[in-house]
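Milestone M4 deliverable, item 7.
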Amino acid sequence: MSFKYKASLVLSGLLGGVFLDYLTGPSINTFGTDFIPSLPVTTSAHIPGRLSSDSVYRNIDQQIEHFINRWDIAGASVAIAKDGKLVFAKGYGWVDKENRIPAEPYNLFRVASISKLITATGIMKLVEEGKLNLDDKVFGPKGILSRAPFDHYKDKAVEDIEVLHLLNHSGGWTTRWGDPMFMPYSIARQTGKELPLKDEDIIEFMLGKRLHFKPGTMAYYSNLGYVILGKVIEEVTGQDYESYIKTQVLYPLGIYDMQLGGSFPEERLSLESKYYEPDDHVLVDDYLGLREKVPSSYGGNDIHTLGAAGGWVASSTDLLKLLLSIDGEPSPADILTPESIQKMTTPSKPGNQPLGWRAVTSDSWYRTGTLAGTSAIMVRQDDGISYVVLFNTSTWKGPALSSEIRHMMTRAIGKTDHWMNTDLFQTNS
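Output delivered:
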């Protein structure tokens, strides 16, 4: 069954953007993995920024506008929740500078490595359903991926890699010779494979190398590990990765707009922002192997193959809805058990990373994402405040910009002493 309805946009327009709360509707398990919500609920709630224009949010506006001007950011989308309710959602600047199209909270942005948290949530769902264990072996005769091309490897220690090791970045790989997810020409040259490479090509190439450390003994941030987790999901469920995440994680939450993105301008989705890099950015070879010089943000990176590690596009409001469903708070209800959430946020040993999250500190959990043309962050604070900030522009600071964003949001939220008594998730727009 198709996951889209050709008439969805027409019907949603005719019905004036009606929003129906699907959280209390029938579960996916009732209908199976081909379940599609009844029309007209075929898109997420498109909450306009005008609903957050009250003067009580003046300090937030000032802080964000100053920030995007300082860092020359084209457009931003910001969503804030307090005590489980969406109290603020607004766009700033432009999603299309050339055509002067303003940003709205429902515009879609690449979220880069925030995708890892989405993948980790999907994995934990499978664990809860008894279809997977965190200590299951991934490779080898008894591994989940025991079939070709994953059954040939140079280092027998590969057989010790567990699902948990991929989740907490202790699978055994470093970027000593570069990140394999961003070196298609080198891998194609060494393997004799034609471009564009598939995710299986990249995994097969890395299995032909020795691991850099024994699995589970240390942690080193790995995009490859999460791409492999995408293949684990496919092997266990019999579905493609994207379909599984949509039907089992997103749709039950009323999130219908999130999907894996594309790499080129012509692959832009109807609500998706354009992406911008610093004026002095350098053109690179396109990942297709055509040897055309392109911006890294438009053809330099294979967004779809990054998939489970960095390929999702989403709105700030949808991401915040997902965050609130895995935050361990009583309202709204979580889609994972308290035990699963605790496992995700408690490193199994000192030095290990949390599962999906970038870091868990004494006062917050956060997840960041950075690609050329993209800067993103989502934060759950212990004071009842959670927020998502998405930018359609990268800066010379790269991933370090996330610290600047957090400092800015701390100032903006700290100077806001009153919040509107509303939940924009429940507002018909």
